[in-house]
Amino acid sequence: MADERPSRPERPDRPERPSRPGGRPGGPGGDRRPYQRKKVCRFCKNKEMSIDYKDAKALRPYVTERGRIVPRRISGTCAKHQRVVCNAVKQARSLAILPFTTTSI
């Protein structure tokens, strides 16, 4: 009894909203690709590659130009190697090998 709500009255004077052109990706009018190739971890594929905090050139692809660490879903690294990359970037930052942020705002 307490759970029942009164029904809403019909509003014939209000027209139904038209759908927006484009909308969300994957919906009607969206131009999302049906298949995207799976990203593969560079370190799992090439076993000779190592992650070292002293090698700033190797860590550059994992840091944006603003100084943020690139997430897994964008970089394509596996969880195990992403943790190692994060620790290496943080260690390189603390030793002033990599900058924390950019110099200009």
Note the main attributes of this structure.
105 residues, mainly alpha, 27% helix
Would you mind describing this structure in some detail?
By secondary structure, the chain is mainly alpha-helical. 27% of the residues lie in helices and 0% in strands. It has helices at 42-45, 56-59, 72-75, 79-94. It starts with 41 loop residues before the first helix and ends in an 11-residue tail after the last helix. The model has no long low-confidence stretch (mean pLDDT 83).
Largest sheet: none
N-to-C span: 60 Å
Radius of gyration equals 24 Å
Write the H/E string, N to C: HHHH
Beta-strand share of residues: under 5%
Report the count of strand segments: 0
Number of helices: 4
Report low-confidence residues grouped into runs of 5 or more: none
Portion of residues within helices: 25-40%
Q: How would the global form be characterised?
A: elongated
Average pLDDT metric:
83
Classify the secondary structure makeup into a structural class: mainly alpha
Short description:
It is built from 4 helices and no strands. The chain has helices at 42-45, 56-59, 72-75, 79-94.
Task: List strands and helices in order, with pairings.
Layout (H helix, E strand, L loop, with lengths): L41 H4 L10 H4 L12 H4 L3 H16 L11
